[in-house]
């Protein structure tokens, strides 16, 4: 890509000339007092540096009548002071190098931003100005400032970048992570050696999911860093099981009332994990109030802005166990020795060094230099710096300090490539190179976009948005036996890896808050298998109730959203976690089946016994007088009725289903036909008005057999048509019981089934009516009475059978049918034959013609 193509991505080509322009010489005059830099050094090329050497400011009052006083920076930060010294170290190394920028030197001017945008803007303007000169070289040539190293806070970097943008001065941030700064249209001159927050929030979202922290709170600063980080986190957890319990913002203008409101939200919330997107300076006073409110049990998740803040770790032991992602550490040889050379004795007039001593030793080496601060005990300024001063001397694994170092080297390598451009191969007009005697910042910016170098074994370059490779260390705050806090690396996040493989954690090395074995932060406890989640109306998705699965449905996973329905032949177990085969039920040879079978066999045997008695006493009057042949037919049919009940017991098959209904209907039709014949004979015998009537010749034995045969034949024909058209067949009934499969016989044709029962009922009703008419006829042994009683019992049993049969579920349907068969059979047996057996066996004296004949005896045998 040519320079013109590259530059057109960010600027109109006409804005910047490709050859050195000519300028008029306007007079430049100072409009106010110059702010002195914290550190400065002369060189061929000047770099700017802005660092938050203080973490808060006191704004002066304004009456809009007089010029406002300068802001007062408070809260010296030794950690940020170390960052500034890292820039000095890098510049001095480069100036001594014979390989990088030989015969050229770098200079610098470093200013304090006090961690606020307004002061950062004052600092960048101070960097741009030449102190004490009425006519600045900016008015006639390339800017004396070629590049800027800074800032730490994203809000400050936004202000600084926009201030530098009209001058096309590139800026490399060492700690500004706001994803908004990747917008090349708004910040075309911005670079950074720290990953942007899009990657950090992805890492934090992965961390929350890894430890199943589904209910978390967020506390953030009221700056662009906090705003954009929250937006990114919400985006990353949108389709996950993580929910935000609350989102609270530390006020930019610190107010205790507002902070107390935030702390009360944290106190009452059930969220035990709190993610904090804030700089060290904003978070420090918040934690001071947190300590006073006695809130416990919080697992802190730190953003990279404060995850390695020694000052916080040393001041607030309750932060032990904090986890968070820190930018990758690097090696800076010679940094420790360089830091040890800084003391008030060597820099007697530098107020920053004096404040360092005040922060480390609580003493003042030169009280006269700080009249606005409280008087402190005097000290020599030659005190030895100890390892306990970790906020300043933490050089074992520098992170932000390392980023400052990389930023300076990125500028140096880009400058080296610019100065040693081969004529005719340059990126500018007609393949020209930059004029080494008058370098413009926008020319350096082009080389920054294409720079690639190695430092401490790490490859450094920038993508098209000015960002660097996303990579983090997972840090855990632990406290050693000596009471000194340590930042232990327990994992890493590499944004270049495939999805799902970016985060690697050594969980065994983590020490959690309160030395817990596990941190749990959920709005609702997980639903075990067998339950499903029911979302609470108006609450986040993480808040739900656990409802047991309905019968026939299961969930075999934790936190199931719904229960799965079991297949047709399966049912859920008692826990609702597994589909098991339904119980197959039919009237088997269980307790009920055996009981009915015994009753049926007893009934058949009892009937056979009565038949035996009748056969043995067939010549006696009581047997002969009641038509012994019909009695034998009735007893035989009753035996078959009892035995046909056995066909209903057992697993239904095609043959058993057809046999049970046809056998039952035909045997009962045969039995009722015999009783009907007997009833007709009795009625005819007792209603003959005079001797010699011919009515009996029409009801002789042959005619009786024809009546029985014809009546039975009708039922046989109905059954035959039934079996041919739609025979009964076995089915699996899954509707009666959801948890059981009922094996039963379908009648096939409902019409045929009810025709069979209806025909039996018709015969029984006809018998009942005829017997009822003959019930009061004379005779000492009028059998019509007993036939009436037997038919009454028979009809009562089968009438009550119909609703019981329809309403009985499962195998009880068959049991009801068997019961009706047995009950009606026993009713016929006892009503018709018990009185005769009583006379035959116990009252033989009454088994005589004289007794049975009475006055109107007529032999019907």
- Separation of the first and last Cα atoms: 129 Å
Largest sheet: 8 strands, mixed
**What is the approximate shape?**
rod-shaped
* Total beta-strand segments: 27
Known CATH architecture of the largest domain:
3-Layer(aba) Sandwich
By CATH, the topology of the largest domain is Rossmann fold
Strand order of the biggest β-sheet: 10-9-11-12-13-16-17-18
Estimate the strand proportion.
Answer: 15-25%
What is the number of helical segments per DSSP (H or I, 4+ residues)? 23
| Unreliable stretches | 1-25, 132-142, 855-861
Overall residue-averaged pLDDT value: 83
CATH class of the largest domain: Alpha Beta
How much helicity do the residues have? 40-55%
Secondary structural class: alpha/beta
CATH superfamily of the largest domain: Response regulator
Membrane topology: Multi-pass membrane protein
Family: Belongs to the G-protein coupled receptor 3 family.
Subcellular location: Cell membrane
Pfam families: 7tm_3 (PF00003), ANF_receptor (PF01094), NCD3G (PF07562)
Description of the molecule:
Mean pLDDT is about 85; it is low at about 1-25, about 130-140 and about 855-860. The chain has four domains: about 5-10 and about 35-195 and about 335-460, Response regulator (Rossmann fold); about 195-330 and about 470-515, Rossmann fold; about 530-580, no CATH class; about 590-710 and about 730-750 and about 760-855, Up-down Bundle (Rhopdopsin 7-helix transmembrane proteins). With about 850 residues, the chain is an alpha/beta fold. The chain is built from 23 helices and 27 strands.
């Amino acid at each position: 890509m040519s320079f013109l193509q590259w530059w057109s991505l960010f600027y109109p080509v006409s804005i910047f000339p490709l050859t050195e322009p000519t300028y008029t010489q306007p007079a430049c005059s100072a409009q106010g007092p110059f702010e002195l830099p914290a550190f400065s050094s002369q060189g061929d090329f000047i770099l700017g540096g802005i660092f938050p050497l203080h973490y808060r400011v006191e704004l002066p009052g304004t009456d809009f009548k007089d010029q406002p006083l300068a802001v007062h920076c408070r809260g010296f930060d030794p950690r940020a002071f170390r960052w500034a010294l890292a820039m000095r170290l890098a510049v001095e190394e480069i100036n001594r190098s014979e390989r990088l920028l030989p015969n050229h030197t770098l200079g610098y001017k470093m200013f304090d931003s006090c961690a606020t945008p307004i002061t950062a803007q004052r600092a960048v303007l101070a960097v741009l100005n030449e102190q004490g000169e009425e006519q600045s070289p900016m008015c006639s040539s390339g800017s004396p400032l070629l590049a800027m190293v800074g800032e730490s806070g994203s809000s400050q970097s936004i202000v600084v970048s926009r201030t530098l943008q009209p001058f096309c001065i590139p800026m490399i941030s060492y700690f500004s992570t706001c994803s908004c700064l990747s917008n090349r249209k708004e910040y075309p001159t911005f670079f950074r050696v720290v990953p942007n927050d899009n990657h950090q929030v992805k890492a934090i979202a992965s961390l929350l999911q890894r430890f199943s922290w589904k209910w978390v709170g967020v506390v953030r600063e009221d700056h662009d860093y906090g705003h954009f980080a929250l937006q990114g986190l919400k985006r990353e957890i949108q389709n996950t099981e993580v929910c935000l319990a609350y989102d609270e913002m530390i006020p930019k203008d610190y107010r205790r009332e507002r902070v107390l409101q935030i702390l009360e939200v944290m106190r009452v919330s059930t969220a035990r994990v709190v993610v904090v997107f804030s700089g060290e300076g904003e978070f420090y006073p918040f934690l001071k109030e947190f300590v006073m409110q006695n809130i416990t049990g919080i697992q802190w998740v730190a953003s990279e802005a404060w995850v390695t803040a020694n000052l916080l770790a040393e001041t607030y032991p309750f932060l032990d166990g904090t986890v968070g992602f820190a930018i990758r550490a690097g090696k800076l040889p010679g940094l420790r020795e360089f830091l040890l050379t800084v003391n008030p004795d060597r820099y007697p007039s530098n107020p920053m060094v004096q404040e360092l001593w005040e922060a480390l030793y609580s003493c003042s080496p030169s009280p006269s230099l700080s009249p606005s601060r409280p008087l402190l005990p005097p000290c020599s300024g030659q005190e030895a710096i100890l390892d306990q001063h970790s906020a300043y001397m933490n050089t074992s694994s520098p992170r932000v300090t390392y980023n400052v170092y990389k930023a300076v080297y990125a500028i140096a390598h880009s400058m080296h490539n610019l100065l040693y451009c081969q004529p005719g191969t340059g990126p500018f007009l007609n393949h020209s190179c930059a004029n080494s005697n008058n370098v413009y910042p926008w020319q350096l910016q082009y080389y920054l976009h294409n720079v690639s170098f190695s430092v401490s074994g790490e490859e450094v370059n920038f993508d098209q948005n000015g960002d660097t490779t996303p990579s983090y260390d997972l840090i855990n705050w632990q406290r050693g036996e000596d009471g000194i806090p340590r930042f232990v690396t327990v994992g890493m996040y590499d944004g270049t890896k495939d999805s799902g493989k970016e985060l690697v954690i050594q969980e065994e090395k983590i020490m959690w808050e309160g030395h817990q074995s596990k941190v749990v932060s959920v709005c609702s406890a997980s639903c075990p298998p067998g339950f499903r989640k029911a979302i609470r109306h108006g609450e986040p998705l993480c808040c739900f109730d656990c409802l047991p699965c309905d019968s026939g449905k299961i969930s075999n996973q934790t936190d199931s959203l719904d229960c799965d329905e079991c297949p047709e032949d399966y049912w859920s177990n008692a826990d609702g976690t597994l589909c098991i085969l339904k119980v197959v039920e039919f009237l088997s040879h269980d307790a009920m089946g055996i009981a009915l079978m015994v009753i049926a066999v007893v009934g058949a045997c009892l009937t056979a016994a009565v038949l035996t008695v009748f056969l043995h006493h067939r010549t006696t009057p009581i047997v002969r007088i009641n038509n012994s042949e019909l009695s034998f037919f009735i007893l035989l049919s009753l035996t078959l009725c009892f035995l046909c009940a056995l066909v209903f017991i057992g697993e239904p098959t095609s043959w058993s289903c057809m046999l049970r209904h046809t056998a039952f209907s035909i045997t009962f039709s045969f039995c009722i036909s015999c009783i009907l014949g007997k009833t007709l004979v009795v009625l005819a015998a007792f209603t003959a008005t005079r001797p010699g009537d011919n009515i009996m010749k029409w009801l002789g034995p042959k005619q009786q057999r024809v009546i029985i045969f014809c009546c039975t034949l009708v039922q046989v024909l109905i059954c035959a048509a039934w079996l041919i058209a739609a025979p009964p067949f076995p089915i699996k009934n899954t509707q009666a019981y959801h948890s059981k499969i009922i094996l039963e016989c379908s009648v096939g044709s409902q019409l045929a089934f009810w025709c069979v029962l209806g025909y039996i009922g018709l015969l029984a009703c006809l018998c009942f009516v005829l017997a009822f008419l003959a019930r009061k006829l004379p005779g000492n042994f009028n059998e019509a009475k007993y036939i009436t009683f037997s038919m009454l019992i028979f009809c009562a049993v089968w009438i009550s059978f119909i609703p019981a049969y329809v309403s009985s579920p499962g195998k009880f349907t068959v049991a009801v049918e068997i019961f009706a068969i047995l009950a009606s059979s026993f009713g016929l047996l006892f009503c018709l034959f018990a009185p005769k057996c009583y006379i035959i066996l116990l009252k033989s004296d009454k088994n005589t013609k004289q007794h049975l004949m009475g006055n109107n005896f007529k032999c019907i045998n």
